[in-house]
Amino acid sequence: MELIEVEEEARLRREDAAARLRELADMLSRHNEVAFNREGVRYSVKVPSEVTFSLEIEIGEQSEIEIELKW
Question: Which residue in 70, 63, 45, 67 sits closest to 55, CA to CA?
Fold first, then answer.
């Protein structure tokens, strides 16, 4: 299988970032997949019922929260 890697970075209002996270959470819990469109092509990634969840928080001049799901 060919590796498809999608990276996205955007400056958003805090409320808009929270809405994006909710949308992702809804896809995971309701549809067991994550779907997205890039350049007119729809991709979907099936997500199994169990995943490894990692949360990393860095606090400094530029703080960061990093969330990672693996399976």
Answer: 67
> For 39-69, what is each residue's pLDDT tens digit?
888 889 999 999 999 999 999 999 999 999 9
Q: How far apart are CA 57 and CA 66, in angstroms?
A: 6
User: Is residue 66 one of the residues assigned to a domain?
Assistant: yes
Q: Give the pTM.
A: 0.80
Answer whether residue 1 is part of any domain: no
| Within-domain flag for 9 | no
CB 32 within 8 A of CB 18: no
Provide the token pair at 8. Answer: 């996205």
Which residue segment(s) compose the domain that 65 sits in? Answer: 14-70
